[in-house]
TrEMBL record:
Location(s) in or outside the cell: Cytoplasm
Gene Ontology cellular-component annotations: cytosol
Protein name: Glycerol-3-phosphate dehydrogenase [NAD(P)+]
Keyword rRNA-binding (UniProt): no
Lineage, opening ranks: Bacteria, Pseudomonadati, Pseudomonadota, Alphaproteobacteria, Rhodobacterales
List of residues binding substrate: 101, 248-249
Residues annotated to bind sn-glycerol 3-phosphate: 101, 129, 131, 184, 237, 247-249
Residues noted as binding NAD(+) in the record, renumbered to the chain: 7-12, 133, 248
Known EC number: 1.1.1.94
Family statement: Belongs to the NAD-dependent glycerol-3-phosphate dehydrogenase family.
Amino acid sequence: MSISVLGAGAFGTALAVSLAQNGPVTLWARDPAQAAQMAEARMNARRLPGVRLPDTVTVTADLDAAMADVVLLAIPMQQTAAFLAQNTGRLAGKALVACSKGIDLATGQGPTALIATTCPGAIPAVLTGPSFAADIARGLPTALTLACADAAAGTALQHALSTPTLRLYRTTDTTGAELGGALKNVIAIAAGVVIGAGLGDSARAALMTRGFAEMTRLATAFGAHPDTLMGLSGFGDLVLTCTSAQSRNFRFGQALGAAGSFDAEATIEGVATARAATALAARHGIDMPVTQMVAALVAGAITVENAVQALLSRPLKQE
């Protein structure tokens, strides 16, 4: 079963490095200059410095040359719909494994729904869970969720994509896996705000707990199984991204809370997800106060002080 990774950012590169333990992998970079530099230097110096690309990784900017039986889409969520629409013919009949975390702003859909509607005949799946690119690339033990509605296809993908250091757990609950991975980025921004504003670890723990309740409310309203949210793609990813400075979403929130600056080129998936989730929650009457506050904060519609006051002044209730 041939494997390719589309998207040569930090995570896509790390996946290619890990999967190369099993055999040849093709890594596609959109920018021909980046692909040439990586192929020559055998390293993604910009996104994953210090990690050598194994000889079994072929880097290319030729999308046709990057087609395989299994295609991992390591493309930012808000670019996924356009990419799929532009390449429907190339991707037809493939097993397409989305590796981005988020909700499409235009449609309110997750990646597997986008794949299903855009690429008929493809097998939609999602790979998500608590992971940092640097850890995967360095061969540190990592466990992820592989979600595919087709149980047989999911089993085949689980075996094809597991490596000696990357352990995959399988589920058919694509909705739960996607929404867990998407919404935890929003809560990670909020956790970063808490720490950046100097509100303390106790406040962060409370925020994570109430944020997880929101994640579960929204996901189960759309048919997800609560157990999925308790797993790697929900609770596991939430813990990682709310407690580590390796998380871009956490660092972004920390800068926001401290009124500091942040790397303008970094992809912060939680920003768009906060907007999309707030719209979904409003449309379906779901209470998500933390998510709503994050959306307002990143839009500049409210201050950190006002957000904290609004959350603390909500009516007292039973847990």
